[in-house]
Amino acid sequence: MLRNFFKKCNQPAKDDRDFTNPDTALDYLLTNDFLHNGLGTEIQKEGNHLHCPKWNITLTPEIGQLTNQNAVVHFHISAPQWGKDLYECSAAVGDSTKQALDMSCVSFLSSFIDGIMKMENGEAMESLETSFAGTTHRWRVSLSNVVGIGSSFGGADAEFYWNLLKDGIIKRLGNQKLCYVKVYAAKSPENITGECRIDDIKSEELSALVAKAAENWNVHPFASQKVFFFIRQEEETILPYAYLGREGNELLRNKAKTAVSLFHACKTPEQYNQLPQQLIEALGDATLAKECYSFFPEMCTENAFPQISYSEAVQIVQESGESVICYKNQLADYWQLYAALLSFLEDGVFGDATNEIYQKYISVSASYDVIQQIYEKGGDKALEHGSLASLSYRVDSNFTIR
Asked: Which terminus in the chain has less CB density within 10 A, N or C?
């Protein structure tokens, strides 16, 4: 089927519509054969969405950049059984905007959707068992096709990338219903690119492995490969989670907003000392309260100083004195809280006080103290090469690692 798509993409088609117009381009994506036939099953158009009843999947394309020969399309994919929305950006080049749009669809279908279809059809390449916070979790792994540009350059298949990254990915599995991983490698005479994104969060550690794998490619002038892993937890090992899916995420966002408001209301050291208990009472969730109190200052600092390299893990020191290292990807709340906090700040949710809140969070951050020391010793150049070890957070018996 996809071979026919490629053939159709390469065949000139007379169409007088202006495909550089975002509305025209979106209408085309929602009605053309590539997305409708590419899933190999019934598709229903519902407004600006495409719905697949067989798997209860909803696909929402959004137009990014368009030129006479380039197209960037953002695809948002959701299904209630996943517990989260998925995202992929597909860019392509063609002899025309229309052909570039077609090729972006082909790339998306050949890789991302190929992996989704395998997962939903129960096709697993491997089964895994992990342990997180004292609980065993079992998983099934589905790999997509590799989509590439260039040929005869020493590229690899999906299993190569899985074996390369498997150990690091397993360390980052917690209690997710679904974890999805994007791997992208590219090489030109001037540059080597490696990227590994877990649930759309880039891992610098794993990205370095991908970049190293591309070093030996013999390419001229350019080659790239892209592949996806879909790691789905078996239903019987999934633990309940209060902030699952869109409704759960909205509940978490509302609680996070309350936490920021309470922080902003602290005007004296005494009030700040009372904040942890206030958060517990206001949020009704002792774990989330501690995370908002501890993580928000560090999240603001990381956003303010992106040139610094930050650890992908945190150290949680429990009341008993036992220390547990957790990757941020493992913690169910961490990246949801990060996205919520940054959206509050970027959207100016707190009006004229927004920047004040941002600066105040940074001022109480443990990371900021270290960054100041790095700067005092070596200035901006030192910051560019600076890195911070995982931070330690002390918690009490009310805190649950989840």
From this structure: N
